PB1-like domain-containing protein
Amino acid sequence: MTRFMTTLHHNGVFIQNPLKYVHGETYVIKDINFEGMNVNQLREIIDRFVNGSPKTYYYAKPGTTLVRGITEIKSASDIEDFMTLGYQNGFKIDLYAEHHGYDVMEMVRDDNFPMPNEHLVEDDPDENECVTIPDFVDVQVQSDDNVVINSVSN
């Protein structure tokens, strides 16, 4: 039986650009066993430590930013992945409670950051760095041309 030390981030909110969990509290749960646990059992345990019932639970890969390492816990398989990262991090891992019902993973998708390995293209050996511009970036070119802005009136 493996016991974890989990830092529970709760009663706060996620904000984006970059993704952060703010205005919350932390509670360290020592000596907790997640082995064989399903999502409902996880909810029952965590609900004892927080005000109100969180809508969703997330964990983040240790050593990464939230935006790059956050994962929603939706299934027993997700709990197993959560435990695996905990094993790899000396039996310590952070758990985040989302109380308001918004989709944090949508915030991650909307956050303006390049995904790992998307920023370099290695097709041209003559270039040291070629940058691929992600689809979500609106590229505008500035020129020396005169621009006339017409007044619009009703």
User: Anything to note?
Assistant: The beta strands are 4-10, 13-15, 20-22, 25-32, 56-60, 70-73, 92-98. The first strand starts at residue 4 and ends at 10.
